[in-house]
Amino acid sequence: MAIKVQIPTPMRDQSDGQAEVVVTGTTVQAALDDLVRQYPGLGTKLFDKGKIRPFVNVFVNEEDIRYLDEMDTKLDDGVTVALIPAVAGG
Amino acid sequence: MNDTFERYSRQMRVPGIGKAGQERILNSRVTLCGVGALGTVLANALVRAGVGFIRVIDRDFVEPSNLQRQVLFDESDVTNNLPKSEAAVAKMRQINSSVKLEAVVADINRTNIEDLCRDADLILDGTDNFEVRYTINDVAVKLNKPWIYGGAVGTEGMTMTIIPGQTPCLRCVFEASPGPGEVGTCETAGVLGPAVGVIANLQAAEALKILAGKTEAINRELFMLNLWENTSKRVKIAPLAGRKGKCPCCALKQFDWLEGEQGTQTTSLCGRNAVQVTQRAGTKLDFAQLASQLKASGPVTANKFLLKFTITDAGEGYEFTVFPDGRAIIKGTDDCDRAKTLYAKYIGY
Questions:
Q1: Which of B130, B185, B236 is nearest residue A63 as measured by Cβ atoms?
Q2: pLDDT tens digits, B283-323
Q3: Which residues of B touch A52 (CB under 8 A)?
Q4: What's the pLDDT tens digit per position in B113-156?
Q5: Chain B closest CA to A9's CA: distance in Å?
Q6: B258, part of any domain
Q7: Pairing with B159, which of A73, B151, B205, B226 sits 20 to 30 Å away (CA)?
């Protein structure tokens, strides 16, 4: 179960600068848990008391998990999970 | 009138605009919130396209570090210490004298945003922070007006188009914005001029579709680009509309940003080591009196738009830029409480 997770630019100081990390997991929760196992510094960036922080939007391919099964959304082999915070500047 | 249509002939040849679309554009009214990097590109595009009326609002003044990307400004605007909205409108007049323009030097907040947007057909986001964007979202939903979000930092940006009742609103998609220090700012991450330019031009194209009456052509996804990494991404947000009847803004009509408490507000400014302090609506400062009050504390200069002074307080240097409505930008700190203290100490409220 290879899943690609896209890391937003402001969090890449915690992923050795990598834009994409390969993880395993059959749900979004499991995939992000594996991501945090590989890069513990992402833990507090992504989660607060075990819950995904409200400014981090999670997409599986092009779909927002909020209209799928949230963190329990099932992942097929090869899908991309994108973590997308709002961009504020301008 | 024939000359008018000759001027816009290339635009009218675009399928989807035509003469009817151009007439609608010529008769339309836009409120542009913020005229910095995104805003100058938007202003340039819209004034050239022949939008009938454009209100340009910005709280800031032109600085040397703006010139790298804020396309309507030049060195003389910096030398003359011009407010951004005034400098932008002066350039826009030279580009297209037939467009009615209004420059507003003000902080956009809950006390004034309804008045600034009520007569507009479309609200455009040229701002650099989420406090204003959520306020725009509230007013757009409340007044049932379309608006177009754009944001850019570093080499990337994103945009989405909001038509209340038809698309998700900003709060449907972004329940919360990153807090201070959570993500990069223009100072820490820098900003690539073309990245902001591309995002703003995407917003401008959306604006023309809406103003020409072609809402069926709008972008209904969240669109992201990174110019340095050569990546783009679109994600589907349409199913988030109203978030199953629970979006506080567009479903429950709770306008939290509009209905918040009035009064002195502080905002830490994106990447500038500065804090803005604003006063309640209707405040009017007497510059002459303020200048005489301050001259013992440090050097003071003023024109009719703003008053500047520098002070040393507790061993730290600060630069104040004060506007007639009582608003001040205090450089030298990003601590809101410290800024309030300094404001109270040197200006008083």
A1: B236
A2: 788 888 788 878 888 899 999 899 999 998 878 899 999 99
A3: none
A4: 999 999 999 999 999 888 889 999 999 999 999 999 999 999 99
A5: 8
A6: no
A7: A73
